[in-house]
Model the fold of this input.
Amino acid sequence: MYSSKGISRDRGGKTHVDHAADFGIETGGKASVAFAQAQERKQGIVRGLVSGIGAMCKGRKVEVFNGVGSLRAGRTVDVTLDDGGSATITGDFVMLASGSVPRLIPGFERGGPIMTSDEVLDLSTLPDRVAVIGGGAIGCEFASTFPTSVPRSPSLRGCRKSCPASTGTSPKSSRSRSRKRRSQSRPG
Done:
């Protein structure tokens, strides 16, 4: 028996196919990814989000300091500003948007074929081969994405189980789906 969820899923699938070109997916014949176009779309979304947050802060008279901050006692933050200056800020409320920093493997430096997620997210073309090292959230996303676009893309990780349970996915089912997508996952 065909459920209403199945009908809804079919309609959603058709909508995705109808708008596939917006996402850099070319559907003529066998579907393929126009990676540069997909990246251009992603950059547009990021620009929109950043400008939206900037406008929201400005509208609420929030002063933004771009740089590296150190939280001190008494609701005080010392900031080394991106432009080379510095500032000491004290306020009733302090919000630190800390972001994240990719980890490097000891003995390896960024550059050439060695990339962190920062560089991968800015690629304009897909590499011929890729090895994803890391079993965190971003590593798992890359490991599940690249095999559909890059034929040889093993995923290497330094722990027995990758993809934390918080994703709602067991490592066993993740490995099963990875096999179906031709990716390889090797514990370190």
Summary: Helices lie at 4-18, 35-59, 117-120, 137-145, 171-180. Residues 165-171, 181-188 have pLDDT under 50 and may be disordered. The first strand starts at residue 25 and ends at 26.
